[in-house]
Amino acid sequence: xxxxxFDLDQVRREIAAEVLxxxxxxxxxxxxxxxxxxxxxxxxxxxxxxxxxxDALRSVDATIFIDPDVPVASSQPAGAAIKKTVRKANYWxxxxxxxxxxxxxxNIAGVLHQVGSELDxxxxxxxxxxxxxxxxxxxxxxxxxxxxxxxxxxxxxxxRVLVAACGDGSFVATLTALGHDAYGTDPRAEVxxxxxxSLDLRREGVIEHLDAVADAMLAGVVLTxxxxxxxxxxxxxxxxxxxxxxxxxxxxxxxxxxxxxxSGEARPVALELAGVEPLRPSTWVSxxxxxxxxxxxxxxxxxxxxxxxxxxxxx
Length: 315
What we know:
Strand order of the largest sheet: 3-2-1-4-5-7-6
Structural class: alpha/beta
Oligomer: single chain
CATH superfamily of the largest domain: Vaccinia Virus protein VP39
Number of domains: 2
Mean pLDDT: 84
Low-confidence stretches: 46-50
CATH architecture of the largest domain: 3-Layer(aba) Sandwich
CATH topology of the largest domain: Rossmann fold
Strand content: 5-15%
CATH class of the largest domain: Alpha Beta
């Protein structure tokens, strides 16, 4: 809930509902939707992106001076003369007031700049130990055996379905062909198609994306290759985000690589560089169960599939 009863989450839900209605009617296709989203991110003021704080401080600096010379233009015949007389009579007082206020605002702006500089230093230090976009870990010769089981699980989802680390969008295409309102995200620019595709595929990481999703807006989330390289704090954040964005009967499909198959020369370079150890599938089962999910584990050899739902135990 925002200022004066303004509910930002409600606005997001209404926007998402309107987008769904237009997408269903065919008036806005996925390509046009991605174009509009890029325009919004490019031109929306202080949208929370990089540089938003510095932009705000520049705006403060540009408006900090209060001009005592009030305008005297008037549409009335004698209006300008009267205003000039009033301004001249009160100028000494207005100049004194505006000078004091400008000095006070200058001091406040100076403090804000110091806070901004300190935040920049903190952010630089945090960048040394964390990354909002963990590497996607996938085996080059991995079999997509889990697609069929995941499709069956998502079939119960009544609403929008996110596929994280979607790659070229093949699984998104499968879900779309089955009638699901599916879309995908992937931070890897080299694998996500940029044009000529009607699928809704976006170049962004799962953490970045879920942070912008309104509460209870997703009926299903499919995660593949996104948890292996996550830091512990990022895994905790992901679990909380899933609690927030999933509908009451939401479904989570988690495709995992087993740690024992990621050792030695078989360990992907990106995972080695991340400096973390993936969780075992059994650990994920325990964690999701503790958060109120009904969980089913499907073993696939070097990888595993976890199907978790908020309702009865998943099939």
